[in-house]
Every structure is written in C-alpha cells, then in structure tokens.
Specification:
Oligomer: single chain
Distance between the termini: 21 Å
Strand content: 25-35%
Number of strands: 13
Number of helices: 3
C-alpha cells in the first residue's frame, strides 16, 4: 500500500514584488449587475457577459490571483495547463475582463463543494451559532485555522472547495506539482 494522498490549499502569494492586486466589480462588460458570490457555489454558470475586474494596485500580472472576495482569476496559460491535466469536468473557466488589459483572463469556477474538512486535525475550527445573528450561516464554519482535509472524503476529485468554508480551494499533489513545473506565478500552496 502506497503513501496516503496529499492535498494542498491554494492561495494567492501576496509577497511577489511589484505584483498587481485585483478587485471584483459587480458588473459585466455590458454594464449588467452580477452576483459576486456566485463563483463560490460550486455550480456551472451561464453568464451573458464577461465579469469585469478592476485593478486595486497596478503591477505585474500573475497566472493566479485572488480578488478581495477570494475569487480566483487566471491566465490563458493556467487554463491550458488544466486542460492538459483533463480537469474540465471539475472546473469552469469564465472569460473575464481586467480593466486596462486586452489579454484574456478567466475566473476559475471550481465545480465541486464537498464536506472534506477534518475538524480534529485542523488547528482550530468554530461554527456559526444562532446567537451570532447570521441565521443563513448557522452550522457553517465561522473560522478554520490550519485547514486539514480528510483524504477519505475527497474521492477522485483533483480540485474542490470545502463545504462551509468555500473561500478555500483544495487540490491534489498531482495538480500542485504540475503548476510548479509549469512555473505558474502567484501561487501559495500549503499542505492541507
């Protein structure tokens, strides 16, 4: 029997010198209003226009960036790598417009949200309670520090968002290594 599979949490590497910082607007390229939270629900989206992303801090564009709402924005190079890894049934790449840029950018829409957090192995977890005054959040995670996943719950997925903590993106070691070999910029990966 081989070593257990390893999983990693994907975040934005903010220490890249002179990097750009993106933010989400709530409109598409036709000026229509968009729900900025729809990209964390784990569902296939059908949009009529391209979401517009602004630049909060100009700088070097990266292959992977997160907006202030933790929406992943990626380059065509990133899309190509995921196509080579045959992850098309686990992700959707939504064409997006970055203000002031003509190059193609995409929002990475992760299509699976699963209950994979291993509470016992995390440094700390807390849940929303009725007395917190957020009824729609009761029972979901309020905080997760040192996120760890239960490999038995991951199934055959290569990438997902954890149920109740959908700001995080979890991926397999195979995807992590492929991104590192390809020299993708903007990545911060921590074992989960």
């Amino acid at each position: 029997m081989g070593a257990p599979p390893r999983y990693f949490e994907l975040w934005d590497e903010m220490s890249v010198p002179c990097r750009w910082v993106l933010y989400q607007t709530d409109i598409d390229d036709h000026g229509r209003k968009l729900d900025p939270w729809q990209f964390k629900r784990g569902t296939l989206l059908h949009l009529d226009g391209r979401p517009v992303l602004g630049i909060a801090h100009p700088g070097v564009p990266l292959d992977f960036s997160l907006t202030e709402l933790a929406t992943p924005v990626v380059t065509e190079r990133f899309v190509s790598l995921f196509e080579q890894l045959e992850l098309g049934n686990e992700v959707q790449f939504i064409p997006a417009q970055v203000e002031g840029h003509t190059e193609p950018y995409f929002i990475l829409n992760v299509l699976n949200v699963i209950r994979c957090i291993d509470d016992a192995r995390c440094e700390e977890v807390s849940y929303w309670r009725p007395e917190d005054g957020e009824p729609e959040l009761v029972g979901k995670y309020q905080n997760v520090s040192g996120l760890k996943v239960d490999p038995a719950r991951m199934g055959d997925l290569s990438i997902c968002r954890p149920w109740g903590w959908t700001g995080a993106i979890i991926l397999t070691e195979r995807v992590k290594l492929a991104m590192e070999r390809a020299g993708m910029t903007g990545l911060r990966l921590r074992e989960a």
